[in-house]
Amino acid sequence: MLSKKTIEIVKSTAPVLADKGVEITTYFYKKLFENHPELLNIFNHANQSKGRQQTALANTVYAAATYIDQLEVVLPAVKQIAHKHRSLQVKPEHYPIVGEHLLLAIKEVLGDAATDEILHAWGEAYGVIAQVFIDVEQEMYQQAETSNAGWTDFKEFEVVRKEEESSVITSFYLKPADGSKVSLHKPGQYITIRVSIPGEKYLLNRQYSLSDAPNEDYYRISVKREAEFTPEGKVSNYLHDQVNAGDKLELTVPAGDFILDSGREPVYLISGGVGITPMLSMLKTIAQEAPARPTTFLHASKNGTVHAFYDEVKNTMETLQRGEAIFVYENPTVEDRSRQKFHFDGYVTEEMIRELHAEPESKFYVCGPVPFMRAILNHLENIGVPAEKINYEFFGPAMDLKQKQSVGA
Fold this sequence. Notes:
Elements: H1 4-12, H2 14-35, H3 45-50, H4 52-66, H5 75-88, H6 94-110, H7 116-146, E1 155-164, E2 169-176, E3 190-195, E4 204-209, E5 219-224, H8 234-242, E6 248-251, E7 267-272, H9 276-289, E8 295-301, H10 310-317, E9 323-329, H11 334-339, E10 344-345, H12 350-354, E11 363-367, H13 370-382, E12 390-393
Parallel strand pairs: 7-8, 7-11, 8-9, 9-10, 11-12
Antiparallel strand pairs: 1-2, 1-6, 2-5, 3-4, 3-6
Helix pairs in contact: 1-7, 2-4, 2-6, 5-7, 6-7
């Protein structure tokens, strides 16, 4: 238990952390990797270079300071982060290293304002927070290992099939190299893959949603080639260009809490771009397990050339008793118009969402690029959909969608 004095000190520093949080976490990661470069085998380097990991950690530290005496408030966010940690194989022995460098960063950025009393209080508080993560993650490790066909750490899988889904998305079908069954995932979950790329000093980890319904035979991931920005995505381009049927990848047991519920209420699966991947797993699961469930699948793409799984979604919809697929193209091609592949052009608007006439008990699942998700969540809020009816998933560290502090890492 933390003393009243420690709690007061930590809570009083919350405004400072809100102001200096990203500066603190940027310095934290810099020193952490200088002193422990082996941890670069765990972290996503792309998220580091984009600043997303720094922002997410800053939000987490701020939330922990604010609710240090009510950690149950942030437990849902802790569990979301813990899923990612378990999937990446973050272990208890990593937490003291993180704590040491977090205190070092606080002292460096705050200077003389970081008194011994403040640093001592934060050291105690970090110990409590770290133990919460360790306990939650330990339970997840046990579940992953003891689940049917589960395993520990990374396991070798073979690429048994590679299939181009659009001009930018390619699917990889993966089976255990030892011939065993796969551990059933929940629709919406992801796996971590680990690759060693020639010329790269460290191993590279990436998390990809599983894009097919759960089965005991294989996993399918569908990867977008990240080539629009500099630097280009190392892992996605490596998978597209170098990995073929017969090659091996290392995987961890599926993880994540963005999962389809087992209810029978009307459900709306709303995605943009490669955000279609977890939604397709959900859609195909509904088709198999609850084909009478009212289901609307709304997907936004730039145009038909980048739109993946068009036929797969249409064919799956035909097996539902009350299913509707709606496609929105930002900039449809002439061929898109001639084939009538889409229903609306431009962006998904609030009016478009309103015209769905969703029933009050409906559930909404949202996944896609951050600007897309921000727009959709604002639309849903504006038409009066309760927050508890909305579920959404980030690819990478959680970010702030409503321009105020949130929790994520």
